[in-house]
Write a structure and sequence with these properties.
This protein is mostly helical and about 130 residues long. It contains four helices and two strands.
Length: about 130
Amino acid sequence: MRISFARWIAVAALTLTAVISISSFAVAQYDDDDRYERYYDGDSRQLAHQHGYQSGYRDGYRKGLHEGRENDPGDIDINALQNATHRYESWMGPIQAFRKGYRDGYRHGFRSGYNAAKSGWDYRSDDGYRR
């Protein structure tokens, strides 16, 4: 059975088009995976800063509530700010970024906790906000 030359060219062109289309999807998928890896890898400064901020905010808020009840706004935990490694894990990223985030979060958390205690509102993990 003989296939005409024109039909052979058409089949080859269709096959080539299909291969190129499928490979472009594979490249796009690889690029998405690469972006995911870059964001969540151990070298991500942004992720380390975010984890540090959250950790520092929790610690600072708790300390601010305590000091607000005692009316002592200057009693910040200096050791916590110097070390700034509470809850740090190496998978989070560079420790310097974590420490900067922790210090930023601690200051904001302390201020929020202190103001909450002074206003009569605070947050209790057991039952939510209360006066």
